């Protein structure tokens, strides 16, 4: 029991460290995409910059508007970060003390709760901008969760298991993403929308609603909201690698192989932000309901039908 608790704590600390340095990767990447250096003044080549940002944000005075609903206002950022960290219990590492067999169901339960952190943060701020931003984010997240869930069922049908560890092993000799390229592309674009990232960052539309649901947050609350967002980005990158490009092939450690895959997928998040302009909101909703939903549903029916025929034969 003690070893399991220590393992969980170490995992959370390492996830938070990875999240911190992913912000540095994003800032440096955006800098080079825009033909500039990015942060390079703090320490050696700017490497301690995330630690300096965290120290600055967590030691600043937290300004609270007078009209907020106090408990939900302070609870929402903490709730979002807790959910983001809980998701990392599903990572199928070779060195974890425990493994969750019903991992897909737990992922669907926790990810469906993520919208409440955003909604409560926007509502509790008592600002029209924050409420509009949170409503847009909730509608967007719920819409794209439908196609995400159907594509996860697609991977489940291929691997015949609810466990992420077994799904990872089912990709050992042939990547599912290479067998069904359109489905894996739909999944990845849906993860961009699910995490409110460019070109689907409507919850933070600066030109329309100032800064969206987090407009009234500063200092520690602001830091917690973005820690949750970047932790979710890393987790969804891990999910993309796990569901469609899992397995270790010729490298002995699957954890080492997974590290490089997550690094590639998370960098594409940065690349998309630097390259693509923000869509219109109606185009975003049309894309999921009229585009992604039929494709993911058709792919699921096709795979289930093929598997049924193979079992009959």
UniProtKB/TrEMBL annotation:
Q: Which GO terms describe its molecular function?
A: NADH dehydrogenase (ubiquinone) activity; NADH dehydrogenase activity
Listed A to Z, the keywords are: Membrane, Mitochondrion, NAD, Transmembrane, Transmembrane helix, Ubiquinone
Annotated transmembrane regions: 6-25, 70-88, 100-125, 146-167, 173-190, 233-252, 258-276, 288-310
Recorded topology in the membrane: Multi-pass membrane protein
The principal location of this protein is membrane
Q: What is this protein called?
A: NADH-ubiquinone oxidoreductase chain 1
Stored InterPro entries: NADH_UbQ_OxRdtase_su1/FPO, NADH_UbQ_OxRdtase_su1_CS
- Give the gene symbol: ND1
């Amino acid at each position: 029991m003690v070893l399991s608790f220590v393992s969980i704590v170490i995992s959370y600390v390492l996830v938070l460290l990875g999240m911190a340095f992913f912000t540095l990767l994003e800032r440096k990447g955006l800098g080079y995409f825009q033909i500039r250096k990015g942060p390079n003044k703090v320490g050696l080549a700017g490497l301690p910059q995330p630690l300096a940002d965290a120290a600055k944000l967590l030691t600043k005075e937290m300004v609270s508007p007078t009209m907020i609903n106090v408990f939900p206002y302070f609870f929402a950022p903490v709730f979002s970060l807790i959910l983001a960290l809980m998701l990392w219990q599903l990572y199928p590492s070779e060195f974890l003390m425990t493994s969750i067999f019903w991992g897909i169901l737990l992922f669907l339960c926790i990810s469906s709760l993520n919208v409440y952190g955003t909604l409560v943060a926007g509502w509790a701020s008592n600002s029209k901008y924050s409420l509009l931003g949170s409503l847009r984010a909730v509608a967007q997240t719920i819409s794209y969760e439908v196609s995400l869930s159907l594509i996860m069922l697609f991977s489940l049908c291929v691997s015949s298991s609810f466990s992420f560890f077994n799904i990872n092993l089912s990709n050992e000799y042939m990547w599912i993403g290479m067998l069904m390229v359109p489905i894996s592309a739909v999944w990845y674009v849906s993860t961009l929308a699910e995490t409110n990232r460019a070109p689907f960052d409507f919850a933070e539309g600066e030109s329309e609603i100032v800064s969206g649901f987090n407009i009234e947050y500063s200092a520690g609350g602001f830091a917690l909201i973005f820690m949750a967002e970047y932790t979710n980005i890393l987790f969804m990158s891990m999910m993309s690698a796990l569901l469609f490009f899992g397995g270790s092939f010729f490298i002995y450690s699957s954890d080492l192989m997974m590290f490089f895959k997550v690094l590639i997928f998370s960098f594409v998040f940065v690349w998309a932000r630097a390259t693509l302009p923000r869509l219109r909101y109606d185009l975003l909703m049309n894309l999921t309901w009229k585009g992604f939903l039929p494709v993911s549903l058709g792919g699921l029916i096709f795979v289930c039908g093929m598997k049924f025929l193979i079992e009959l034969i």
